[in-house]
Amino acid sequence: HAAEAQRTDLMTITRHVLNEQGRHPESRGDFTILLSHIVLGCKFVASAVNKAGLAKLIGLAGDTNVQASNPISDLLYSTLLFLHTNPCDGGWPPRVAVQGEEQKKLDVLSNEVFVKALVSSGRTIFGIYMIKDKDNVTLDDVLQPGTDMLAAGYCMYGSSCTIPNIGKIYSVNEGNAKNWDAPTAKFVEKCKFPQDGSPSKSLRYIGSMVADVHRTLLYGGIFLYPADQKSPNGKLRVLYEVFPMSFLMEQAGGQAFTGKQRALELVPRKIHDRSPIFLGSYDDVEDIKALYASESIIG
Ligand code: P6P
C-alpha cells in the first residue's frame, strides 16, 4: 500500500499552497485563493477547449496578435475576473491583472497581487507580482522585473491540440540510416534536400517516443521508427507504443502509417508484437505513404 500511496501521492498547486500557508498562520490567504482561482480558470478553459477544439477557439491558427483578442485568453480572463469579483468572495478589494494580448487592458482581479496572464494557442502562462502601492494601483505595477515575480506557471490544453498539416521537423534515429529500406531513405533525403525549393526540415530526436510524439503533436512534423535490416518489424511495440500514439495523432488531425497500412488497423497476434511506425502531420505522412506505394508498384 505504501508503494501505491507513493505513486498516487500527487502534489497539486492547491495542495502545495495550502501546505505553505499552513507554515505561515499569519498569512491572509490572498495568494492561496488567487492561485486556486487560476487553477479553476485553467480547468474551465481546458474543458472548453476539449469541447470546442483548440483551432475553433482561437480562430484560424496564428490569427491572434497584440490588437486582436484571443478567445481562450478572454475565456480564462473572464473566468478569473468572475471568480475574483464574485460577491461570494466577500467583496474582495480587487486589484490589477493584465492579459497578454491586450496590454492596454487593465482589469480588477485580486487583492495585493496581480496576474499577468498570457494565453497563446494551446497554453496559458502566468506570472504573479505584488502590487507596489495598494492605494495607488497603476499599469506600471505590471512593468516589474522578473526578479520581482512571486510565482509563475503554465497550463497546456492537451487533447484538443490540432497539428499543422505539414511540419518543419522530422524525427528519426539517423544512426540506423545504413539499415533503412529505400522509401525511408528517400523520404529522409527529401527532408534534408527538398527538390521543390521548400526549406529543409530540422532533425529533432530525443529517443523517447512519448517526448518525440508530444513535440510532434505540439509543433507538427513526422516521427519515424521504420523497419530496417536490424529490426525487420521495427522496434516499437504495437499495443503500448504504436496504438496509443497513433490514436492521439489521428485525433489531432494527423495520421499514422506502418509502411503498409493505417497503423490502427493492425491486428496484433502477440502482446509484444512490434511494428514500423510513421506518424505526424497529415501531409508529411502522405509523402512517405506515396514513396512506399511507388516502391510496392516497382516491386
Ligand atoms: P533508439 C525507448 O527505448 C523506445 O522504446 C522508444 O520510446 C523510443 O522511441 C525508441 O525506443 C528509441 O529507440 O533505437 O532510437 O534508441
UniProtKB/TrEMBL annotation:
UniProt enzyme class: hydrolase
Cofactor dependence: Mg(2+)
Keywords on record: Carbohydrate metabolism, Hydrolase, Magnesium, Metal-binding
PROSITE patterns: FBPASE
Catalytic activity: beta-D-fructose 1,6-bisphosphate + H2O = beta-D-fructose 6-phosphate + phosphate
InterPro entries according to UniProt: FBPase_C_dom (IPR044015), FBPase_class-1 (IPR000146), FBPase_N (IPR033391), FBPtase (IPR028343), Fructose_bisphosphatase_AS (IPR020548)
The protein's name in its UniProt record: fructose-bisphosphatase
Protein source organism: Oryza glumipatula
